[in-house]
Every structure is written in C-alpha cells, then in structure tokens.
From TrEMBL:
<feature type="transmembrane region" description="Helical">
    <location>
        <begin position="68"/>
        <end position="87"/>
    </location>
</feature>
<feature type="transmembrane region" description="Helical">
    <location>
        <begin position="45"/>
        <end position="62"/>
    </location>
</feature>
<feature type="transmembrane region" description="Helical">
    <location>
        <begin position="316"/>
        <end position="341"/>
    </location>
</feature>
<feature type="transmembrane region" description="Helical">
    <location>
        <begin position="404"/>
        <end position="428"/>
    </location>
</feature>
<dbReference type="Pfam" id="PF10797">
    <property type="entry name" value="YhfT"/>
</dbReference>
<protein>
    <submittedName>
        <fullName>YhfT family protein</fullName>
    </submittedName>
</protein>
<feature type="transmembrane region" description="Helical">
    <location>
        <begin position="277"/>
        <end position="309"/>
    </location>
</feature>
<keyword id="KW-1133">Transmembrane helix</keyword>
<feature type="transmembrane region" description="Helical">
    <location>
        <begin position="6"/>
        <end position="24"/>
    </location>
</feature>
<feature type="transmembrane region" description="Helical">
    <location>
        <begin position="94"/>
        <end position="112"/>
    </location>
</feature>
<keyword id="KW-0472">Membrane</keyword>
<feature type="transmembrane region" description="Helical">
    <location>
        <begin position="236"/>
        <end position="257"/>
    </location>
</feature>
<feature type="transmembrane region" description="Helical">
    <location>
        <begin position="361"/>
        <end position="392"/>
    </location>
</feature>
<keyword id="KW-0812">Transmembrane</keyword>
<feature type="transmembrane region" description="Helical">
    <location>
        <begin position="132"/>
        <end position="151"/>
    </location>
</feature>
<dbReference type="InterPro" id="IPR019733">
    <property type="entry name" value="Uncharacterised_YhfT"/>
</dbReference>
Length: 430
C-alpha cells in the first residue's frame, strides 16, 4: 500500500504538470502561464523546468530523503514537474507522463531502500552523519518571520520580531525544564522552535494587515483573473485526488512537506512536526494564492495544509478523506482569498518576502549543516572542502544554487572519503 501511494502521487502529479493544471515549483507557475497563453513554446518550457528544478531534486530533495529515510516532497514533485512539462501535451504525452511519473515514484521507494543497504557495505558509512545536514534547519527556521518583516517593513521591526521570538523560545525552554504545564499529573512539553515561529508569524501578519490600500488603488483580483480562477475550480477533482493521496502518504510517515517537519518526524516528534507544518502552511497561503489567481496554475499540494491533515489524522483513511475535503475548500475559497488579499495588500506582498526569507534562512542553515556533516565524515577535511566548495561556486557565478551547496558538498565528501580509505590514504574515522 505504501508503494502504491507514492506511485500514484508520482503519476497524478506528472499528469497535472503535463496538462498545465498544477506545478510544485512556485517559480514555474508564471512560466507555465506564459506557455498557456502562447508566448512560450513547449520545448522551451520543458528545458526551463529542467533547469529550475533538477538541481533542487539532486541537491535538496534527495539528500534530505536519504538522511531521514522519509521522502521530502520536493524530491518527488520537482521531478514530476520536469517529467510532465518535458512530455508533449498530446494524446501520447499524457499517458507517457503518467507512466514515467509513476515509475519515478516507485524508483524513489525502491531506490531508497537500496541506497540504505548499500551504505552498510561502504568503508565509510556516511548515511548517519548525513543526518546532520538538516539539524540546524529546525533551530534557524524560526528566524524567517523576523527576516521577512525586516525585508518588507523596517529593520527595526525585524529586530523587534527576532528579539521577541527568541525570548518566547527561551521562555518555552524554561517552562519545559520546570514542568510548569501539566495535565493529569503529566508534564506537557512545548516545542520551543514552534512557539517562536508562531510568535514571529503573528508579528509578520499584524504588520502586513496594517498596510491598507491607498484610495482608488484597489484592484479586484478575483474579477481581473476570474477566468483563471474558474479554470482552477474546474480541475478541483484532480486536486482532491492528489490531496487525498499526499495526506494519506504523510499519515503513513512516508513523506514530509518541508525539511523542518521531516527532521522532527525522523526524531519521532509527530505532533511537533504537525505544528511546524501548520506554521509553514499559514506563511505560504499568500504566495500560493497570489500565483494561482494570477496564472491559473495551482500547486499539487495547495496551501500545504494537507501535510498538517496527514500528521494529525488518527489513521490513513481519515487523512485521505479530510485531505480531499481540505484541498477542495482551498480551491473553492480562492475568490474570497483574492478579495481579502486585495483588501490587505501588505498580506499579498508578504508572500514573496516570506519565500525569499525562507530561502535565505535555508541557505545558511543547510551550509552549516553540510559543513557539520562533512566534518563528521572526514574530520578537518570536511570543513576545508565545504568552505572551498562554497567560495569556488560563488566565484564561478553560482552554477549550483546556494541552498544545495551544503547537502551536495556533504555527499561529495562522503564519496571522496570512501575513495581515500580504499586507496589507503585516509584511515576510517572513529
């Protein structure tokens, strides 16, 4: 059943991309819209999708998937974006996308097990140290609302948001240590990063809502893009299918929607992972809604609330049903969300700042994590390699996205360490 879920997700997501209905990569939605309106050829669209997503699959999705033995949704849906958009939009391209997308999902499941077994035979098993790649992400991610506030509003407001978030985090640590919160004699442990993240998001949206539209400047997004909203609503059945599948797969702990919840799931903290996923979903609503309304192209995971459904549902079938209902509600509410975003332009504008802030935080966290993992694999050499790799990548004009440098560098160090041990140049790290 687990394999079937992943295979179906791969097949359906590839079909949605092939039919220009939904793509996972936020940056691809406007480009797909250009193709729909006849300004971009299919071949150019496929090549653009490959260029934008392949590096993230290899350098971001797969390393996280390997480090936790849980599929990071990016590794499958960025891949199906490429598969669906490269396949021509005709009568044979559709079944080809479905078949290749399903095989790709199956390959992730089968290949994952094979990879894990393969590491046991290596002189230097670097699978466990690879887990350190994601360690800083959970802690540093709580700073992204403060960075988004600083980028959109003022640096003073960003600093205030950061300081209050940090204080709330330490207050949560203090409460946990002294077991102040109890129910029925059992101490309740607060997730300190989750509390800081929620406080930061409250600050961000409070500032955003205060930013009102100027007199006469309001534009009714729902009216302007009514045909595009209508096209998304016409495909709601497809979104319900993939929403149900992803919610079910998440409930089975097969996949996670972001590095934060993935690492928490790997540590057995399912409730904390659900809180982190909920905070992320709230932050992504302006971005997903705005791009969907403006382009007529949705995301196969919607507002990412289906991951929250999967993590908090009591069993897989409840997750499947609620997942379908939730994504149906999202699509039906797009017009209302458009009017709300129009009323509060600060909230609408925060979408891009949220995305940029998340990217910057992840770039720093993954570089630190990649350096720590590399040094655990090959002490001394690991730090040297990551520093040189990062600087040379910058000097070369950044052929590898910054976010991928840490994870890719850690994998490279693992391979190099095994080669050096095999040649007798390096001893096996203790």
């Amino acid at each position: 059943m687990e394999t079937l879920f992943v295979v179906l997700i791969g097949a359906v997501a590839a079909v949605l991309a092939n039919q220009n209905i939904a793509v996972f990569n936020d940056g691809l939605r406007p480009i797909v819209s250009e193709h729909i309106e006849g300004r971009l050829k299919r071949r150019e669209l496929g090549l653009t999708a490959f260029a934008m997503s392949f590096g993230l699959v290899i350098g971001f999705g797969i390393p996280f998937t390997l480090s936790a033995s849980i599929i990071l949704i990016h590794s499958i849906l960025l891949g199906t974006d490429i598969i669906g958009l490269i396949a021509p939009k005709n009568r044979w391209g559709l079944p080809a996308a479905a078949i290749v997308g399903g095989l790709y999902g199956w390959g992730l499941m089968v290949g994952l097990e094979g990879f894990v077994k393969l590491f046991d035979y290596l002189p230097v098993n670097f699978l466990e140290p690879m887990g350190q790649v994601g360690d800083p992400v959970v802690v540093t991610f709580m700073a992204f609302p403060a960075l988004a506030v600083a980028m959109q509003f003022t640096i003073k407001k960003g600093i205030l948001t950061f300081v209050v978030s940090a204080l709330v985090r330490q207050l949560a640590v203090f409460v946990n240590e002294h077991e102040f919160l109890q129910i029925g004699g059992n101490a309740i442990s607060l997730n300190q990063e989750g509390m800081a993240l929620i406080v930061g998001m409250i600050f961000l949206f409070t500032y955003a809502i205060r930013e009102k539209a100027e007199e006469g400047s309001s534009v009714d997004l729902a009216s302007v893009f009514s045909e595009k909203v209508k096209s998304i609503k016409n495909n709601v059945a497809f979104f319900m299918i993939i929403g149900a599948l992803i919610a079910g797969a998440t409930n089975l702990l097969l996949m996670a929607g972001d590095p934060i919840s993935l690492n928490l799931l790997a540590d057995g903290k399912q409730a904390d992972a659900g809180i982190a996923a909920a905070a992320r979903a709230i932050g992504f609503i302006p971005l997903v809604a705005s791009t969907a309304i403006a382009t007529g192209v949705y995301s196969p995971v919607g507002f990412t609330l289906i991951f929250v459904v999967g993590l908090f549902s009591p069993n897989v079938w409840v997750a499947v049903i609620i997942g379908a209902i939730v994504i149906f509600g999202e699509v039906m509410l797009l017009s209302s969300i458009a009017r709300f975003l129009d009323k509060y332009p600060g909230v609408r504008n925060s979408g891009e700042n949220i995305r940029n802030a998340m990217t910057k935080i992840l770039e720093v966290a993954l570089l630190i994590g990649g350096a720590n993992a590399s040094n655990a694999i090959a002490p001394g050499f690991g730090f040297f390699f990551i520093a040189g790799f990062y600087l040379l990548n910058e000097a070369a004009g950044r052929p590898i996205v910054r976010m991928a440098v840490g994870p890719v560098g850690a994998i490279a160090v693992g391979i190099i360490a095994n080669i050096l041990v095999a040649l007798g140049i390096m001893s096996i790290p203790q």
